Amino acid sequence: MKILGIGVDIVDNKRLRKLIKDKKFINRTFGKKEIELSKRFKDKVNYFAKRFAAKEALSKALGTGFRYNLNFKDIEIINDNLGKPYYLNSVKIDQFIKKICKASKYNLHLSISDEKEYSMAFTILQKK
Description:
By secondary structure, the protein is an alpha+beta fold. It has a single domain (2-127), classed as CATH 3.90.470.20. It has helices spanning 13-19, 23-29, 32-38, 44-62, 91-101; strands at 2-12, 77-79, 85-87, 106-114, 118-127. α1 crosses α4 (44-62).
């Protein structure tokens, strides 16, 4: 297996605290499942900040940033039953990776973390 890209991002939680007060920002940046799952979390700032960082990290792992019609809302991060975060599979992301990275089969690895002031994400895009 070959690593096609690595991305990392860190977010100042104060910045997100201000942004998530605006419902337009939330609806423009996060997917339906992410918004629905946020209702389970008391600390909305860290919840959204980690996902924002994960979206940025994936765009960096792809090597494109948010170009070629890739938007924040296209990337959704949810958790499995044990709490492990992962990128939700979508047709758009799948097609994007196949076109940009020339990989028909791939794995996306994600690690997210937070502290009081910062949230961060680390992503590896790996060709199978």
